[in-house]
Amino acid sequence: MRRLSPALLLLCLPLGGCQDWQSVLNAQGPAASSLARMFWIFVAVLATVWALTMIALLLSLRRRRPFDADPLATNPATERRMTITISVAVGLTLLTVISLTGLSYAAQKALFAHKDGSLTLLVTGQQWWWKITYEDSQPNRVFTTANEIHIPVGEPVLVKLESSDVIHSFWIPSLTGKMDAITGRQNQLQIQADRPGIYRGQCAEYCGLQHAHMALLVVAENKEDFERWREQQISSAISPGDEERQRGMEIFLSKPCIMCHQIRGTDAGGKIAPDLTHVGSRRTIGAGTLETTRGNIAAWIVDPHGVKPGVNMPTIQLEPSEVQPLASYLEGLK
Amino acid sequence: MRRLLVMSLTALALAACEREDREYRANPVTSETNEKIALSPLSAGPSGPTEQRSGLGKEYEENAYHISQGQRLYVWFNCNGCHANGGGDSGPALMDDRWIYGGQIGNIVQTIREGRPNGMPSFRGKIPDDQIWQIAAYIRSMGRNVPKAAAPGRKDDLSPGPAEQRRPPGEVIDGGQTPPSAQMPQ
């Protein structure tokens, strides 16, 4: 027991992490709440069953039979008692299994029930980042961003999931369960956040070398903040304010960056890599790999494979004096 | 004793398990490899034209990772816009054995870098050098001019032909002609 208790304590330690921004037990939306409720019901019921079984087992181990008793002897009273005990146990087992099945079924019905919402997103999983397109009936209000989803609080948001290369899985533990993004087909999922906050999500289907660095953030905010954010994202990139940023823009447009990246409002129109129109307004770069700071942007440009080995961003030939203006320009794209 | 022998031999055999190296990180210092490729034996003066090849090609065309990256970049950078899936369209076919500007990997790299008359644009400064080499290696794999083990085993899109890996080994014949669609009207 003395050796067991530190081990038990250590096992309990990770539970402290369950209040984090990426946790199934930190449910912040209706779907996640119903999943968390299911989880706790299963834990409680199964723990009770386990405890009862163990108690019965311990009792039977402790009870001694008279040593000289005839093992084949039967006694009608004992037989009757045993029949009743076993029937009750079997009945209880059936009841447990049936009621848990029923509960799961009810939870699933709630999980997959589609509510009408005004917002539809197209999320495309790519090695190793998320492309996010906000759909709208007006074509000029459609825009694309990457790795950061903003949603209004309390509204169901429809997420259409696609993939451009291999199978990925979209998972925001605090909001809902997993759903795979599969090439050549579209899966749909609804997310809803009940409280404002930032919830982290992660690709949940192994998709290659940098699967672990394929995160996304869901920022749930109130309606006005969300509308303000959307208007700002729809707009083209702001023109560089000072001379350094102007030079940064010229460097960006004259280097291979434009083959893959788009900055709306400039000549850069690549559609392969994340849209950088408002990259400075996003919290992270490299799909949750680094925080968005000028230094991190510079590090990412100079040595992407040092930060995220195998990423599809190539090393680009830059003069040392070109790094600072370029990072400054990108950081300024709020 | 016998079991020990078998075990040690198995352990010895495991030592041969070497995974192919994947070079993710290009050398950030050199801007581009030095290729000087003569397309014709003619030159002014008594000696022939000077040629210089960096010899980097082997590293790329014998490496499955580089070739499959090239396969992806081929579509990303819209090579298929003119050359289709290698069968040629407004640009010449790439999977056949005829090479207007030479079929060695260095020649293909030069073609992508410098561009060629009648339509092929120059990608110098637009595509980083290591990616040009990757694309060239993939183009070599279309006519199976790369080792079977390194050639791509599957295609991402529907294709009427077998994957590069299952094509018969090809050869390179210099020559060929510009397709009529790419010629200047007379």
TrEMBL record, chain A:
Pfam families: COX2, Cytochrom_C. Its main location: membrane. Residues 243-334 form the Cytochrome c domain. One of its GO terms (biological process) is ATP synthesis coupled electron transport. The chain crosses the membrane at residues 37-61, 82-106. It is a multi-pass membrane protein. Subunits I and II form the functional core of the enzyme complex. Electrons originating in cytochrome c are transferred via heme a and Cu(A) to the binuclear center formed by heme a3 and Cu(B). PANTHER family: CYTOCHROME C OXIDASE SUBUNIT 2, CYTOCHROME C OXIDASE, SUBUNIT II. This is Cytochrome aa3 subunit 2. It comes from Microvirga lupini.
From TrEMBL, chain B:
One of its GO terms (molecular function) is heme binding. Gene3D superfamilies: Cytochrome c-like domain. This is Cytochrome c oxidase cbb3-type subunit 3. Its cofactor is heme c. Residues 65-143 form the Cytochrome c domain. Residues 153-169 have a biased composition (Basic and acidic residues). PROSITE patterns: CYTC (PS51007), PROKAR_LIPOPROTEIN (PS51257). The lineage of its organism: Bacteria, Pseudomonadati, Pseudomonadota, Alphaproteobacteria, Hyphomicrobiales. Residues 24-56, 146-186 are annotated as: Disordered. Keywords: Electron transport, Heme, Iron, Metal-binding, Respiratory chain, Transport. InterPro entries: Cyt_c-like_dom, Cyt_c-like_dom_sf, Cyt_C_IC, Cytochrome_c-type_DH.
